[in-house]
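Two proteins were folded this term; both appear here.
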Amino acid sequence: MSVSPQVRFFNYLHHRYGKKEVIFETMEVLKLQQAAVYKRVNGTTALTTDELMQLASHFNVSLDTALQHENYFSFQHPFQNSKRSLDFFEHFAFIMEPILEKEVIRSEITYLANELPVFYYLHHEYIFRFQLAIWNHLHWTEGKLIIGSDQVIDPKIDDLRKQVVESYRARRVTEIWNPAMLSNLYQQILYAISIRVFADRDFIDKLVKDLENLIHDLQQLPQQSHDPSSSTEDRPNIYINEFGNYMNILLFEGEKLRSTCIGYDMPQFILSHDTRLYDYSKRWVENIKRHSVFITYGGLRDRELFFASVEREFSQFADRVQKLMVLYQM
């Protein structure tokens, strides 16, 4: 027996939020009595177009996902009305909210990164300051790019950064890294020195030190995972894809929600809660995992070889930074 689109829509809401919550919130949004809501939920009374749009907006669901043919997928994106970095980070936090909510239990994240998961960059202050300046310059700021130690970050952005990092660390996470994960960041920094966008040497020194600390933190992660005394949030499962990745995909699976976030310019994500897209993406990422090197819970030789390469690349980068600063008399 086929199910009407209206009943299918409410079934979708029930799965996402629970039937009791959907009933009472629908009563509030549509200003209806409980009996009238039940008639709409059961399909006895047809929803008007206006009522359907109100509910979709209130519950933050896509009508494409809830009603359309299976070949249709829907995404949320951040930049339609954004005009400054705070607009973006507020939307970034909004996208991450159902994924990173602390109260969500029995949930897990899989992150396939074409560099590193962006949350590692957000955790280190001067790396974040540098990348924020680049993002601002590319998307919002006109005129010359200037990066310095006196650069002021909006306190709201800094709070959002810390909130997102803390929440991500509280989840059970599987990560797939690209072996060339820091190469792009190195090139950005070297280029920034060569075109004289740094206002002072102090910022560069702190940025290089931040990168050194980042690498040290990354080295500790697989060891924490191997330590049975470490807590759940300290135990990411880490893979290295030696062929390299060209996508940033974050998959979240919780009790009531399965979400796919696709990054198209870090840390900009488009987001879908369509379970069919999630299932397809999960299978695709699982296949990539099978062709990747697992460096936690053992894998000592592979882990040592990988980080030896990372340290060599960092040493070469730091040496080039010093030579460029001498050349440009910084």
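Next, the second protein.
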Amino acid sequence: MAWRDVHASHADASPFCDPVFLDGLERILPWKRLFIHAPGLGAASVFVRRRGPVKDLVLPPFCPYSAVHPEEGVGSEAMTRSLLLSTPNLPPTRLFSLEPGLDESILGPAPEQGHTVTRRFTYHLSTAPIEDAVAAWSSSQRRSFRRHEATYRYQRVDAQDLTRASDTVRQDLKQVAALTAGGYDRHGSRLPLSRAGLLQLSEELIRHERGTLHLLRSSKSGSIEAGVLTLGRAGMAWYWLAGSLPGPAMTVLMGHVQDDLHHAGVPVLDLMGANTAGIGEFKRRFGGALVSYLHVRTATRAGVMAERAAQWIHRFRK
């Protein structure tokens, strides 16, 4: 059974389960993609990375949640435990990131090997008309927005814009990718996908109406100072690709994003993570609700050693 067939019966699933998103990732990642289907338990579309002789099931870059679908009528507990079982086509070292709403108590002990559960956090932000949205922010964010709003102009880019002016939209995406990479640099890390791959995937998501690009330009120069590509489904959007120059631009853009999503009928924006101190504090100031989700890991000694070696090599290269 194809993933598209399984996904068709889960209209409320996150965009990270969407075949357009997963197929796009598969084209740009060097990892093997597997489709797991266990009758009576659930289905998952996963990526397996190889480092020397060691394989591990990983969470791809820019994916806060794993692509997992329970079968109709099957509880989350049965579905989740099935992912932890020893399975011939899955490596024993695995990471699954479960969407908010699943409690740690559903996991129970793994039948054949240990697992660890780490609680992670994100903010769910209500959308609203721009003045109502800004009124719910912290006082410092409100002041920054009102002081600087007039120095920018907002632009929304969707699939129709890509059809009419593809070269222009590609240039805009390049600038947003550069701003995103700059943010990683300032935090002492590297963009986890190549810029070329990120641009290819972003364009596909916009073309297939999975994503909307929100831009904030300087009123004087017209240059992009902040950009966010949101992904969506009915009732929810995700702050997926985001970058800005240091300064007030992203704060101003957030007001417009909340306003735009509200008028598009999308009530909630997932800010995609609040697990780094500085980033978490910035997102907290927009007044969203802190929600948790679970990282569930299983590992072997070889897998742990390979992970430590990779971390050491990464620090050495930096």
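The first strand starts at residue 32 and ends at 38. The mean pLDDT is 86. These notes refer to the second protein only.
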